[in-house]
Amino acid sequence: MIKRLFDIVVSLFSLIILFPLFLLIAIWVVIDSGFPVLYVQQRVGRGNKDFPLLKFRTMHQGADQKGLLTVGSNDHRITRAGGLLRKYKLDELPQLFNILRGQMSFVGPRPEVRKYVDLYTSDQKKVLSVKPGLTDYASLQYLDENTILQQFPDPEKAYIETIMPDKLMLNIRYINHRSLLTDIKIILKTIGKIVR
Known about the structure:
This protein is mostly helical. It has one domain. The protein has 9 helices and 4 strands. The protein is globular.
């Protein structure tokens, strides 16, 4: 209950304060690569149920049909505006609406696409017992995931066999020791890492 109240108050306050930034980003996306401004992708949330995750569009239209993972900083599918938005995680800001609607929380396991969730073991599915989040321990550990994947000859195989299991282990660690204080610490660490 306290966590939900925190999510509502902070997301609503953030949306009001950040409205001018939302407007500027929207205009920038349109000037750079046209409409639509938002990219909507089905992700898996609590209870193994799909929900529409919102992002500012950072790729050319239809680019997700060529692969779900983004590899490296020179992925030709990413627009010019998209590169900067991704670098500073500004593309994730529309998820404040997901939080306000109760589909996500500020802190929790990052929501995954169905393709990869279907590969979870029964133990790993524990991450689906809580609301997904905007940030978590795994987000801090893999802030530069795209660059890490670039080092592997088969990025998707590396993601499935190495990175995804490690992220899920960190997610379960969070679930087992979650508290409002822990959430606040993770949020502050995330902001600090992005700013640095």
